[in-house]
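// run 5 | inverse folding | seed 20
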C-alpha cells in the first residue's frame, strides 16, 4: 500500500467567524494594531492576495482540485490564524471557538477521506482552553491550533497546565502557528512582520515551552511547530550553552534544550533545502512533516517538489512526505 502524501499546514477561511465579531468592541483596536505591525505596503498586498485565494480557502471542490495538482492526498486543515481574535471577552471567545470548531468540522466532513481538521482555543482565557479542546475533539477534529502567545500570557504561563495535561491525555494535535509579532512596528516594512516576525515568534514560544519545563511535565504532547519551528531548531547551540553555564537559564528544564527537539514536530516549510536538511539533522527525520501553508503566498505551491529539492534519502523523504503524519494522525 502506498503511503499518502500528507500536508499538515493548510488553512480554511471561515466567514462566519468574521461576521460574529463584526462591530464588537476591541475589533477596531485589534485591526489598528495589526495595521501598525504590518505597515501600509503589506496591507495593500494582503487584501488582493487573500481575495484571490478565497475559493481555495472556502470551497472544498476547489481545494481538492488544488491538492490533486500538488500531489497531496490528505490535508490537516486549520483555521486562518486571522480568526484567533485573542482580544475577545470570555462570552465572545466561547461563541467564537464553538463556531470555528463546528465550521471547520463541517468543511472537512465534505471530504472525510482527504481532510482532517483542527479547531481553535481562546488562549486569552485559559479557563476555557480545556473545554474548547474537548469540544473540538468531540466533533471529530484532530486537535487545535494555537498562536505563540496571548496578550499578557506566554505559553509557559502556569494557567495553561490543565490544557497541556488534557491535550496530552487526549492525544490531541496542537499546531503552533503564530499570528502577529510583538516587535510591532520595527517590522512594518518589506513584510518583515512575516518574514522575520513569524520565525521569531516560533522561536520565543518554543523556548518558553522548553525552558519552563512544560515538555518535561508533559512528554507526550503532540505539538507541531509551523514554519519549521522558526529560528530555534538551527540556533539552539546558543541555548544549550546558556543552559550549561548559567544557573538562571538552566533552572526550569531538566535536559539540554536541544534534546527537546526530538519531543516536538515541525513542518517542512522553511523555503531553503539546506535549512530543511539541517532541521532533519537536528530534530530527526521522524519529527518533520510536510507543510505548505496552503494556499497563502508565503507558502509553497509545490510542497513535494520542495522536499525533493533537499535531496533527502529515500527513507527520510518517505517519512517526511507522509509516513510520519500517518502515525501521528493515526491514519489507516
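// decoded
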Amino acid at each position: 500500500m502506498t503511503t499518502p502524501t500528507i500536508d499538515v499546514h493548510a488553512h480554511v477561511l471561515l466567514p462566519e467567524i468574521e461576521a460574529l465579531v463584526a462591530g464588537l468592541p476591541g475589533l477596531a483596536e485589534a485591526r489598528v494594531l495589526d495595521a501598525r505591525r504590518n505597515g501600509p505596503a503589506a496591507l495593500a498586498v494582503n487584501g488582493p492576495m487573500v481575495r484571490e485565494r478565497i475559493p481555495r480557502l472556502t470551497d472544498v471542490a476547489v481545494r481538492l482540485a488544488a491538492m490533486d495538482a500538488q500531489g497531496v492526498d490528505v490535508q490537516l486543515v486549520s483555521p486562518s490564524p486571522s480568526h484567533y481574535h485573542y482580544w475577545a471577552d470570555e462570552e465572545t471567545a466561547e461563541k467564537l471557538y464553538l463556531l470555528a470548531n463546528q465550521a471547520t468540522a463541517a468543511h472537512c466532513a465534505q471530504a472525510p477521506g482527504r481532510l482532517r481538521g483542527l479547531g481553535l482555543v481562546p488562549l486569552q482565557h485559559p479557563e476555557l482552553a480545556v473545554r474548547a479542546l474537548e469540544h473540538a475533539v468531540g466533533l471529530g477534529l484532530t486537535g487545535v491550533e494555537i498562536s505563540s502567545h496571548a496578550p499578557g500570557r506566554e505559553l509557559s504561563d502556569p494557567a495553561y497546565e490543565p490544557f497541556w495535561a488534557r491535550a496530552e491525555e487526549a492525544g490531541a494535535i496542537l499546531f503552533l502557528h503564530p499570528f502577529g509579532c510583538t516587535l510591532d512596528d520595527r517590522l512594518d516594512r518589506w513584510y518583515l512582520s512575516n518574514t522575520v516576525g513569524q520565525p521569531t515568534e516560533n522561536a520565543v514560544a518554543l523556548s518558553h515551552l522548553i525552558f519552563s519545563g512544560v515538555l518535561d511535565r508533559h512528554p507526550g504532547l503532540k505539538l507541531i511547530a509551523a514554519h519549521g519551528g522558526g529560528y530555534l531548531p538551527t540556533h539552539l547551540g546558543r541555548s544549550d550553552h546558556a543552559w550549561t553555564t548559567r544557573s538562571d537559564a538552566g533552572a526550569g528544564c531538566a535536559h539540554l534544550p536541544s534534546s527537546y527537539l526530538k519531543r516536538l514536530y515541525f513542518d517542512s516549510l522553511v523555503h531553503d533545502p539546506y535549512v530543511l536538511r539541517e532541521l532533519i539533522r537536528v530534530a530527526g527525520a521522524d519529527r518533520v512533516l510536510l507543510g505548505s501553508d496552503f494556499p497563502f503566498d508565503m507558502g509553497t505551491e509545490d510542497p513535494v517538489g520542495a522536499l525533493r529539492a533537499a535531496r533527502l534519502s529515500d527513507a527520510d523523504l518517505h517519512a517526511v512526505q507522509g509516513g510520519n503524519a500517518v502515525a501521528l494522525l493515526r491514519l489507516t
